[in-house]
Amino acid sequence: MRITCLHTADSNIAVFENTAQALGLSQHQFVHVSRPDLLAAAEKAGGLTADIRQQTADVLLALSENADRVLLTCSTLGSAATLAAETATMPVLRVDQALAEQAMKTAGKVVALCAVETTLEPTRQLFTQVEKHPQAQLEICLVAGAWEKFKQGDLAGYLQAIAAAADAQYLKGAACVVLAQASMTGAAQLTQMGKPLTSPECGLRAALA
């Protein structure tokens, strides 16, 4: 199976390659395409506009012509995958769909951590749309200051800030902590109070199902 991943941060390529390796997948199965300009446009616009959504969907459709699966790894642009899937001949998936589905099966407080403001609303929409446990309670939180560290190239500081935020949520009684953006994945290895769910692992498992 050939899976093409559309990223909006170059650093996410390594994140997905490492996750694939941990799952025992062959690197030859994957093609990575990076379009940081799409996320930059959404940030500049203050969120995902109809034009950016369509532009992203067009890129996904083009990629689907030479792939068995296409995986959009950017949570901010997530709904573009849904749009592309309406006309694509191959499955086009958003990486956080499976993440949301797994998280919302939890009985208790589910906290989804985001690093960039443009991801807050798409994450809220997705997590409230999926089937959920009757006792699941959703909370969406922004990790203040984290995205600035990421954009400055301070990846270690970025991941430490997210790990600290995740541990704080576990201490407050969260039953499940979710790292909503793929770029946050490395923080799951740094937490002390629990193991957060990450989108690359959930998304890749779903793509292979």
Overview of the molecule:
- The chain contains nine helices and eight strands.
- The protein is of the alpha/beta class.
- The chain has two domains: 98 residues, Rossmann fold, CATH 3.40.50; 103 residues, Rossmann fold.
- A four-stranded parallel sheet has the order 2-1-3-4, sandwiched between helices. Strands 6-5-7-8 form a four-stranded parallel sheet, with helices on both faces.
- Strand 5, helix 6 and strand 6 form a beta-alpha-beta unit.
- Helix 3 crosses helix 4 and helix 5 packs across helix 9.
- The termini are close together.
- The model has no long low-confidence stretch (mean pLDDT 96).
- This is Asp/Glu racemase.
- It holds the Pfam family Asp_Glu_race.
